[in-house]
Amino acid sequence: MSLIDVENLRKSYGETEVLKGIDLAVPQGEVLALIGRSGSGKSTFLRCLNGLEQINSGRVRILGEDLHYSAAGLRKMRQQIGMIFQQFELFPHLTAGRNVMLAQQVVKGIPRDEAEQVAREMLSKVGLAERFDAYPRNLSGGQQQRVAIARALAMSPKALLCDEITSALDPELVQEVLGVVRALATSGMTLIMVTHEMRFAREVCERVAFMHQGRIHEIGAPDELFEAPKTPELKQLLGHLPAAS
Ligand SMILES: Nc1ncnc2c1ncn2[C@@H]1O[C@H](COP(=O)(O)OP(=O)(O)OP(=O)(O)O)[C@@H](O)[C@H]1O
């Protein structure tokens, strides 16, 4: 059974259909990159996978169970599927440690002591053991993003969805975050990553899906897609073809 199973997913905003029938099965442990031009629907797709957006038709199943949009359904799903965003989304008035503790306490009802222990463990995993008491404003962007990763990991998710998690970072900070993601990939975490880091996608991901106009236009092993793109749209994105005028 796949960890995440998507069948004919459609999503519209008003009259505009943004996702036009997506099928995708992600087995446990897979590292999948989603690439595509701005506006092709990558973020919307990720948001549909963890219930931040409600789909119009089709199915999203997590470990064989349909995603339910009730409060209880969403709570259950969020313990299985974590998400990390471009803008970190940390609470500025809470320390790194408290940021990592909070969701465990609120969503999982874990007692404070235990949540703190997990938070320390997870911060240490992302190389920030010493920054438990630091506030986000005193951390670099790369450190803040690593806190966000620790916060997601503290929920013991079965998969992590990463939405352009290095796009807001200064170039010199990108690698420290990608290094953490690489270690997670090696440890067997299921990852779906929207990314513009083509080199990283190529080195770390097992499959790459190219989204174009709300559909998965091509999908396959990175070598296949990057070396021998089949469609003109992907060739263009990869710079194999000049942009159409
Ligand atoms: N909440 C919303 N309401 C209306 N339209 C939306 C909403 N969110 C996204 N869209 C539209 O849906 C389309 C797909 O957007 P989406 O953000 O999923 O694309 P993307 O491939 O992730 O692009 P980017 O790389 O720029 O984030 C765009 O045309 C966008 O304007």
UniProtKB/TrEMBL annotation:
This is ATP-binding cassette domain-containing protein. Coiled coil: none annotated. Keywords: Amino-acid transport, ATP-binding, Cell membrane, Membrane, Nucleotide-binding, Transport. It is a peripheral membrane protein. GO terms for molecular function: ATP binding. It comes from Ponticoccus alexandrii. The keyword Secreted does not apply. SMART domains: AAA. CDD domains: ABC_HisP_GlnQ. Pfam families: ABC_tran. Residues 4-238 form the ABC transporter domain. It comes from the Bacteria. InterPro entries: AAA+_ATPase, ABC_ATPase_HisP-typ, ABC_transporter-like_ATP-bd, ABC_transporter-like_CS, MetN_ABC_transporter-like, P-loop_NTPase. It is found in: Cell membrane. Belongs to the ABC transporter superfamily.
